[in-house]
Amino acid sequence: MAKFVYDFTEGNKDLKDLLGGKGANLAEMTNLGLPVPPGFTITTEACRHYLEHGGLPDGLEDEVDRHLAELERAMGKRLGQSDDPLLVSVRSGAKFSMPGMMETVLNVGLNDESVHGLAAQAGDERFAWDSYRRLIQMFGGTVLGIEGELFEDAVEAAKKARGTNDDVDLTAEDFKDLVERFKAIVREQAGREFPTDPREQMDLAVRAVFDSWNAPRAILYRRQERIPVDLGTAVNICSMVFGNLGMDSGTGVAFTRDPASGQQGIYGDYLQNAQGEDVVAGIRNTVPLTELERLDKASYDQLLQIMEKLENHYLDMCDIEFTIERGKLWMLQTRVGKRTAAAAFRIACQLLDQGLIDADEAARRVKGDQLAQLMFPRFTSTTDGITKLTRGMNASPGAAVGKVVFTSARAVELAERGEDVILVRRETNPDDLAGMMAARGVLTSRGGKTSHAAVVARGMGKTCVCGAEELDVDVKAGRFTAPDGTTVTEGDVISIDGSSGDVYLGEVPVEDSPVVRYFEGELAVADGDDLVKAVDRLMRHADGRAALAVRANADNPEDAARARRFGARGIGLCRTEHMFLGDRRRLVEALILAEDDAERQAALDALEPLQRSDFEGIFAAMDGLPVTIRLIDPPLHEFLPDLTELSVKVALAGDGADPRDRRLLEAVNRLHEQNPMLGLRGVRLGLVIPGLFSMQVRAIAEAAAARRNAGGDPRPEIMIPLVGAVQELEAVRDEARGILADVARETGVDVPALIGTMIELPRAALTAGQIAEAAEFFSFGTNDLTQTTWGFSRDDVEAAFFSRYLELGIFGASPFETLDRDGVGRLVRIAAEEGRRARPGLKLGICGEHGGDPDSVHFCHEVGLDYVSCSPFRVPVARLEAGRAAI
Ligand code: PEP
Ligand code: MG
Question: Whose CA is closest to atom 10 on ligand 1?
Answer without folding.
Answer: 784
